[in-house]
Predict the structure.
Amino acid sequence: MKKKLPLFALFLFFFSLLLFCHSSLAFESDELLVDDEEFGLEGGSKPQIKPHEPAPTRSTTTTTRRKVSDQDSDSKIQFSLEHAFGDSDFVPAGTFSARLKTSSHGGQTLTKLRFSRNAFTGEDKEKFEKLLQDDDFYRIRLPSNTVSPPGRDYIISSVKARCLPREGLDEHFVIHMEGVNILAVNYGAFGACSYPRQLKLPHKWSFNSHTVLKNSEQAPRAPIFAEEVLGENGEGEIIPPPERSFWAKYWMYLIPLGLIVINAVTQAMNMPEEGVQGGGQTQQSAAAIQRGTGSAVRRR
Amino acid sequence: MDWHQQYIGKVKHAVFHTQKTGRKRVVVSTEENVIASLDLRHGEIFWRHVLGINDVVDGIDIALDVITLSSDGSTLRAWNLPDGQMVWESFLRGSKHSKPLLLVPTNLKVDKDSLILVSSKGCLHAVSSIDGEILWTRDFAAESVEVQQVIQLDESDQIYVVGYAGSSQFHAYQINAMNGELLNHETAAFSGGFVGDVALVSSDTLVTLDTTRSILVTVSFKNRKIAFQETHLSNLGEDSSGMVEILPSSLTGMFTVKINNYKLFIRLTSEDKLEVVHKVDHETVVSDALVFSEGKEAFAVVEHGGSKVDITVKPGQDWNNNLVQESIEMDHQRGLVHKVFINNYLRTDRSHGFRALIVMEDHSLLLVQQGKIVWNREDALASIIDVTTSELPVEKEGVSVAKVEHSLFEWLKLKGTLMLASPEDVAAIQAIRLKSSEKSKMTRDHNGFRKLLIVLTKARKIFALHSGDGRVVWSLLLHKSEACDSPTELNLYQWQTPHHHAMDENPSVLVVGRCGVSSKAPAILSFVDTYTGKELNSFDLVHSAVQVMPLPFTDSTEQRLHLLVDDDRRIHLYPKTSEAISIFQQEFSNIYWYSVEADNGIIKGHAVKSKCAGEVLDDFCFETRVLWSIIFPMESEKIIAAVSRKQNEVVHTQAKVTSEQDVMYKYISKNLLFVATVAPKASGHIGSADPDEAWLVVYLIDTITGRILHRMTHHGAQGPVHAVLSENWVVYHYFNLRAHRYEMSVTEIYDQSRAENKDVLKLVLGKHNLTAPVSSYSRPEITTKSQTYFFTHSVKAVAVTSTAKGITSKQLLIGTIGDQVLALDKRFLDPRRSINPTQAEKEEGIIPLADSLPIIPQSYVTHSLKVEGLRGILTVPAKLESTTLVFAYGVDLFYTRLAPSRTYDSLTEDFSYALLLLTIVALVAAIFVTWVLSEKKELREKWR
C-alpha cells in the first residue's frame, strides 16, 4: 500500500507529461497554420498539401536558385536586376521571376520570388576588384513596376563593395512591395559590415543570394476599453502615491532608537543580576557600570 | 520666468473710429489675418481676433460694428466695436471668382440699419448691418460681367456697378441700393481692351489702362451714356516703356500711376483732360483721401529724405498747398514706408490736426502726431520664420568700468534709502536694478537660463530677444543688394559658436535666403554677429540653395562647415577657405545626404562623387551621385510628412533596463528619417474620403543606405500628420476615420545585435560589441514596438523637450488647436504599457494601459495664455540638466522654462539656507557641549 501510491503518482505524472507534450505538439501545428493562412489551410492538425497546389513555401522568404516549377505561365512575370560598378552604366545582372497572384478583390501581389544571377564575367571580376580596391559602391537597380517595367523610374540601391565578400559574395535583398510596385530594395551584405572595412577578396566569384519580399504590416489597433476603466483613474499619474507605512517612513529613526532601547535593556538586565551575584562587590559592579552607557539609570 | 507677447502682424487696412467714443481707437486688419482694435494713444491691443490661415481678410470697414470681409469675399462678419465680440456672420455664395469689394455707404440708412454692399464671387450682395441678413443679391457672373467697382452716387440711394465682360466690353449698371432694382444698364465696347486696376476719379468717371499698357482710358458714364477718352502716356510727357500700372487710390479728381520706379500723380481737369501734377520716386507713399469737416478732403504724402521721413498732409485736389508738414527722424532699421493712413482730430485751438499711422518695411506700425512718433509696435515678430539661440557673453570680472558703475550704484542706493534721491536718481536706480537683475542681465549665467533668441521674420528683419524678459536686444533689417529686389529669407543656422578656442570671437549666425520665390532662384547668404547685431558679410551666390546641411565639423575659428545643395544636385562647401576644404577632404567618403521630393513621391540618397567639372574651376563645388532611391507608387501613396532627428540631440544611455532585470538596447542612429504617406484620395480634408479608401503608411528609413527599417500601415487613417523623432522613438499624430478620433502612435526601435551583451563576465572580459563602430551597411537586427492611443485635440505642432545630457525624462510638447502648449510625459506614450502591469513594471514606471492619452489641465505649459496662430515650438537645453527652455511662436510669442522631472539637481528658490546653517551650527554646538559634559563627568568618575 505504501509503495503503490508513489507508483500511481509517477504514472499520473508521466501521463500528464504526455498530455502536455501532446498539447504542445498540437500548439506547434497551430503555429504553422498561422503561417500558411493565406493558402487557405484552415483546421486540421497538420498542414495538408493538396496535390495540385505547389508546396507552401512562404511568400516572404524564398531561397534562390530554385528551378522553375510547374506554374501557370500566364501569371508568371519576370523582371531583371541590373548592376553598375561605381559610376558605370547599368547592365543586366540577373533575373527575378515570380508568380502574380490576383486576389478576389482585384489586388495583385507577387509570390514565390525566385532569383537567378548571371555569373560574373572576367571583365566584371576586374571591375569588382577595382571597386574593392577603391572602397567604392556596387550599385544595383530594379524596375519600380514589375508588370510594366521600368514603371516610373528605377529603384536604386548601393552598397560598399567591401561589404559583400565572405566565402563567396554574399548578398541580401529585401524588396519592399506595394501590390505590383516595388517601393524600395534594401541591398547589402548578409551579415555585419563593420566600419573600418578591410580589403578582402572572395574565394569564389559566385553570388550567394538571399531574397526577402516584404509587404506592409498592419498597425496594431488602439486599445478600446469600457468606459469605466477610463474614469478618473485613467489619469493614474496625478494620483498621489499611496501613503507609505509607518515603518517605511521612519525606519532610520526607529533602528537607532531600537538599538538604544536594547542596549538599555541589556544594561538593566545585567544590573540586577550583578547585584544578586556580587552582593557586596560594589567596587566591581561600579567598574562594570562605568563601561556601560546608561549609568544614570541605576545610580541612586 | 515666463513671458508672453502679443502681436498682430503687418497692417493691411486701418479704419479709424473717433466718433464721440471716449477712447480713440483704430481697427486694423493684417497680413497674418488678424483683426485688432488698437488704442490710438498707446498702441495697445484692446481686442484681437486671429482668423484661420485660409481666412484672408479682404476688406474692413466700420458701419455700426466693425465689418470684415474675408475668405476671398465669401465670409462677412460683424464684430462689436467696444469688445470685439462677434455680432453676426454671413456666408455669401457665388459661382465665380471675382475681386472682393466691401462698401459701406454712409447715407443709405433706414433707422439704424445701414446697408453693406459686397461684391464677391461674381455677385453683388446687399446685407443688413444689424443681423447680417442678405437683403438682395444680383448675379453679374451670369451675364459674364466681372465687377470692377461699386460706386455710390452722392446723396441718393442709387449705386453704379461697373465691370468688364471679356476684356473690351464695358458695362455700367445703375441700381437702386434699397431693393436691388435695376434702373439702367449701359454697355459699350472699347477696341483697345482693358487691363489692370481701375481708379475712380469722380463718382461718374474712372481711369484704366488699355491692353498695351501705354494708353490711359478715361471712362465716363454720365447721363446714361458711356464715353471713352484715350490719352497716350507719351502725350503726358512720360516714357511709357516698362511696367505701367494704376495704383488703387481714392483721391478725388486724381489718381496714381506707377511707371517702373517712379509714380505719377495725374489730375483730371474740368475739361476732362489729364495732366501730370507731380512726379515722385516709388518710395513715396500716399494715403487715401480723408473727409473732414463738411466736404473738405485731405490726404497724406510720405517721402523719404535721408534718415528723415517727411509727412505732408495736403488738401484734396490741391497739390501745392500743405495743411501740415512734418519731418521725423526715422531709424534706418525700419526700412521704407509701405503704407500710411491718416486721421484728423480737433486741436485745443479748434483747428484741425492730423495724425498718421505708418506701416514700415519691417512690418512695424508707428503713430505719428505733431512731428513725433507717439508709439511703435514691432509687428514683424508676428511672422517668425526660423529661430535659433545664442549664448550671451561671459561676465567679465573686475572690469574697472563695471566697478565704477557698481560703486555709483551703491552710492545711489544709499541716497535712495536715506530719502535724499531726486526723481532722476530714483529712475536711474530703477534702470540699473532692472539691468542687473538676475533674469535680464546681459551675461551668461551658471545654469544657462539666459540666452539670446535669434529670430528671423518674414520682414527680413532679425531680432535678438533676451530670454529673461523677452525684450528686443537688437534688431537688424537685412541689407538689400542691388542685384535682387525681392529677396525672401528662409532659414537661420548657427555659423560660429565659439567654444574652446577662438573665445574672443563673437558668435554669429548664417541667414540663408533666395532672390525670388522659386527654388531655383540664386541664394543669398548673410552672416550676422549675435552680440552686436551687425551684418558681418553678405553674398549673392550664383547658384541656388535647395537644401542646407550643417556638417558636424568646425574649423579652427569654430566656424561650422555647411554644404549647400543647388538645384542641379551639386553641393557647395562654405566657408570657402582652404582649411575647410582640407577638413572636408578627410571626411569626403563619409558624407551622405538625402532629398525628399514630396510632389514626385521619391526619396533619394546621395553621396559626394568628385569635384565639379566646368569651365570655371571651383574647388568648393562637388558633384554627387544617387546611391539609393525609394519610389512610392503615385496611385497609392503620397508623402505628407518627413521628419528627422534633431542633429544636436544628446542621448544619455543606449541601454534601457526593464523590470525583469533585462537590458534592451535602443537603436540610436542620427540617420533616421520618418516618412508618412497617405492615399492620394485621402490627402484632402478630413471627411473627403471613406475609411476604406484611406490609409496611412509610416516608414522609418536609414538615410545612408535607404534601408526601410520599419513599415506599417494604418488602415482608415489620414493626415495631417505631425511627428517628432527623438532617441529611438517616433511619435506621430493623425486622424482615424473609423474611430472618428485623432490618434497618436508611438514606435520604438531596439537593436537586437547588442542584445547578447548581458553577461557580466563577457563585459568584464571585453567580449562584447558595445564599442565596435556602428555601420549602416551592416544588416540591422532590430525589433520595433508600437502602440496607439486616442488623443482628443487636433495638433498644430509637436516638439520634444531636450536637455543638456539627455538624462532627464522627456515630455512631448503639443501645440493644440486652442493655441496652447500641452506637456505630455513620454511615459504615456510607451509601447510597453499593458492593462495590468506587474508590480515590477509598475516600479519601473509603466502606466496601466488606457485607450486615450490624458489631458491634465495643470500640464498646459502656457497656463491660461494663448499663443495665437501657433506655428512652432523650439526647445533648447539649459546648462542645468533638469531644465529645458521652451519658446513657442506664432502671432504671439511665449517663453518658459520646463523641468520635466522637477529640478532634481538644484535647490528650490524657497529653500532656506539660513535654517540649514542654523541647524549645522546648533549641531556643532551640541556636540561641543555634550563632549565637554562627558569629559567632566569622566573626570569626576575617576576622582571618586
Observations:
- The two ends of chain A are 74 Å apart (CA to CA).
- Strands of chain A lie at 61-63, 76-85, 91-102, 108-117, 137-143, 154-160, 169-178, 181-188, 207-214, 217-218.
